[in-house]
Amino acid sequence: MTSAEVHQNQLSFFGRIADDLTRRVLGPGDITVSIEGSVRQAIKKADGYFAFSDLVPSATEYRVRVAAPRYQHRTISRSLAVGSGAVELSLAGEDELYVSIEAVVPGQMQVTFGERVVTPSIDTGAPVIGEGDFVGALAEPLEGYHAKGAVLNKIDGLAPGQLLRIVRSQNLLVRPGPYYAFPAGTTVAAFKVVEAGPAKAPVGGAAIEIAEVEGTVARVVDVQGLRLAVFGPVGSSLATIALDADDMRTVTNDQGDAVLYFLGEKPPGAMKVAVSRAGYQDATLTINLLAGGRTFQNIQMTRQ
């Protein structure tokens, strides 16, 4: 569905939903899209697009909830101004590849970076956003299971150690949940959070956030409005891993289960996480991850 397919005289939201790992678009049988506090359900299409029509203009934000059985649910808040027409629900940094430049090769108009899995491919012309005011585009498609560089239409102002945001699409992504069948090669940290004591009741709504990677805390880099948490060797400008806010944090479901995961980048060997939930004492722990496999961690929280 394009903006032209949405009646221009109707106020509505529209967007497209895809899987955060595979980038596969999710159709009507995969997801539920609704307005919180309303019985309104979105019109959904097989190509992953959804739309709401005839919504009442409101300065108070609508809360659009996206839910699916094997995914973490999410909520996007957006207001509707009078006469705004069709409003696409998209978020800066949502479907992007973050890379740290290792070298700039002027003769080839290329930047190199640590090996990444890039599937599906990112098309020629995809926007590339860098630190400062750099805005360029891919001059060739970027793809492959061992991608180590990208050819750009410009490289002026780029230098090793800088971060780039390579835009894949305007899709909204839903993140796999604890019962998702992760593809081979995904590094997964699976958590079970329970109350301390004999009953070990599951603790839902507990926030689990990455605090350190390999013993280092993140430095925050602003890439044209998107704040990325960058972990890397002490004294080095190169990033081992760059994460946005959604990558850094997860929340347990009603069964106390949650996951964090890494695909297509060098996963951290050791990761410290902070666990918090209202009514419980905060907890921290360090886990050693199995690269390309699943590491399980049981966490007990004590009531205050």
Description:
The chain is mainly β and 304 residues long. The protein folds into three domains: 3-88, Immunoglobulin-like, CATH 2.60.40; 95-169, Elongation Factor Tu (Ef-tu), domain 3 (Beta Barrel); 178-301, Sandwich (Immunoglobulin-like), CATH 2.60.40. Helices cover 1% and strands 48% of the residues. It contains one helix and 25 strands. The strands form seven sheets. Strands 1, 3, 4, 7 and 15 form a five-stranded mixed β-sheet that branches. Residues 3-9 have low confidence and may be disordered.
Topology:
Layout: E1 12-19, E2 32-35, E3 43-44, E4 49-52, E5 58-67, E6 74-80, E7 86-88, E8 95-100, E9 103-105, E10 110-122, E11 127-130, E12 135-137, E13 142-151, E14 163-169, E15 172-174, E16 187-195, E17 207-213, E18 219-223, E19 226-231, E20 241-243, H1 245-248, E21 249-251, E22 257-262, E23 270-276, E24 283-288, E25 294-301
Parallel strand pairs: 1-7, 1-15, 16-25
Antiparallel strand pairs: 1-4, 2-5, 3-4, 5-6, 8-14, 9-10, 10-13, 11-12, 11-14, 16-22, 17-21, 17-23, 18-19, 19-20, 23-24
